[in-house]
Automatic annotation (TrEMBL):
GO terms for molecular function: cysteine synthase activity; homocysteine desulfhydrase activity; methionine gamma-lyase activity; O-acetylhomoserine aminocarboxypropyltransferase activity; pyridoxal phosphate binding. The lineage of its organism: Bacteria, Bacillati, Bacillota, Clostridia, Eubacteriales. Its EC number is 4.4.1.2. This is homocysteine desulfhydrase. Gene3D superfamilies: Aspartate Aminotransferase, domain 1, Type I PLP-dependent aspartate aminotransferase-like (Major domain). GO terms for cellular component: cytoplasm. Residues 391-418 form a coiled coil. It catalyses: L-methionine + H2O = methanethiol + 2-oxobutanoate + NH4(+); L-homocysteine + H2O = 2-oxobutanoate + hydrogen sulfide + NH4(+) + H(+). It comes from the Bacteria. GO terms for biological process: cysteine biosynthetic process from serine; L-homocysteine biosynthetic process; transsulfuration.
Length: 418
């Protein structure tokens, strides 16, 4: 089965009751039992069943199974947000004294998280870019995980998953990747060696910009050394599944990061068009990038352009799919604001993965907690605009940005002549 068929007919898609083509929305907090004995069996895992939505819910499970199949994982767990997924994927295996290696060019919220983890005694080494060579300079016997973004938002650095996962495995540590911007329509990081994949499913998986959520997919392949990964010690009898068992029955459950059933349902219906949407946004972003690249004074950062530093990995690892995000530099912060303010169709909003095209000035919003060096490592300068391309007609997007840039130039000329 190919990707688009799998989205609709994959083996994770159960026959739902009464022949319904989609799962019912179990919008409840608790599930009632016929007897105390039966309830005991469910609580002691001797019988299948649901007890309480923070611990498990059938609509949420239907969403988890679909993403798990698309990523080629062995199990998946949905969370209340992408940040909950990133956070729990890490703290599930970390204790005070442990260290992380990651890239400096990360999503702003994740950068903030690493600062928070420092207060719990967990240290992060930032390397730029995240390669075998750079990681080998900071790895030591306290390193417990390598974390990277498959395609970083918004720098568009592409992670060489095969190379960095081989390096991680040589040191008996797992590779966790955030594949939000790439999506399973473009790449399956597990196939290339990643051990755990996280998504902010608020973005492309949902697609409509209508629900916040996240998901963690475990390959089930990493061989945990329980003397080294003390956080998993009590779960050693589960062997390769120890990560997911601790996550589900301990870390995630007790942090209370469950996904609302209604939002799981929105994700399921959104996800069914993931393949179509990604194809469209890849094409639109490519056309917009090429058009903007022709305009004087505009520098475009997009993977399909020959000049991009990750153009080779774009062709090989990403199969020529550049994704929906591009950034442009326009010359000054003032001009960036003027361009954004003159857009007619494009919304000024801090999201990606929406079917609508969105634009934002990342330095004054998403990266206000980061210092200049971190901003620049993430490809964020005072004159940078991040564009998350939607599914509109490319001609209209090109028209909108072109006219906004012209108006911005006119306004600046007028000001200079005064
Ligand atoms: C948005 C995003 C997150 C955080 O997800 P939320 O659903 O907003 O919590 C994490 N990583 C990346 C790459 C993102 O784009």
């Amino acid at each position: 089965m190919n990707f688009n068929t799998k989205l609709l007919h994959g083996k994770s898609i159960q026959p739902y009751s009464d022949g319904a083509t989609l799962p019912a929305i179990a919008q409840v907090s608790a599930f009632a039992y016929e007897s105390a004995e039966q309830q005991e069996k469910v609580f002691t895992h001797k019988a299948m069943g649901y007890a309480y939505t923070r611990i498990g819910n059938p609509t949420v499970a239907a969403f988890e199974q679909r993403v798990c199949e698309l990523e080629g994982g062995s199990s998946a767990l949905a969370c209340s947000s992408g940040m909950a997924a990133v956070t729990l994927s890490l703290i599930n295996i970390l204790t005070a004294g442990d260290e992380i290696i990651t890239s400096s060019g990360l999503y702003g919220g994740t950068l903030d998280l690493f600062k928070d983890l420092e207060k719990f005694g967990i240290k992060t080494h930032f390397v730029n870019p995240l390669t075998k060579e750079n990681a080998s300079k900071v790895i030591n016997d306290r390193t417990r995980v390598i974390f990277g973004e498959v395609v970083s938002n918004p720098a568009l650095n592409v992670l060489d998953i095969k190379s960095i996962s081989e390096f991680a495995h040589e040191h008996n540590i797992p590779l966790i990747v955030d594949s939000t911007t790439a999506t399973p329509a473009v790449i399956n990081p597990i196939k290339l060696g990643a051990d755990i994949v996280v998504h902010s499913s608020s973005k492309y998986i949902n697609g409509g910009g209508n629900s916040i959520s996240g998901i963690i997919v475990d390959s089930g392949k990493f061989k945990w050394d329980f003397d080294k990964f003390r956080a998993l010690e009590d779960f050693s009898k589960y062997q390769n599944m120890a990560y997911m068992v601790r996550l589900r029955t301990d870390t995630w459950e007790n942090f209370g990061s469950c996904l609302a059933p209604q939002n799981a349902y929105y994700n399921i219906i959104g996800m069914e068009t993931l393949g179509l949407r990604m194809q469209r946004v890849n094409e639109n972003a490519d056309k917009l990038a090429r058009a903007l690249n022709e305009i004087d004074g505009i520098t475009v950062n997009y993977l399909s352009l020959n000049s991009h530093p990750y153009h080779e990995l774009y062709k090989t690892e990403l199969n020529g799919n550049g994704g929906a995000i591009l950034t442009i530099r326009v010359g000054s912060r003032e001009k960036a604001y003027k361009v954004i303010n003159n857009l007619k169709y494009v919304h000024i909003a801090s999201n990606i993965g929406d079917i609508r095209t969105l634009a934002i000035h990342p330095q004054s919003t998403l990266y206000i907690h980061s210092d200049k060096a971190q901003q620049e490592a993430a490809g964020v300068y005072e004159d940078t605009i991040r564009i998350s391309v939607g599914i509109e007609d490319a001609e209209d997007l090109i028209y909108d940005f072109t006219q906004a840039i012209e108006k911005a130039n006119e306004e600046l000329d007028k000001k200079d002549n005064k």
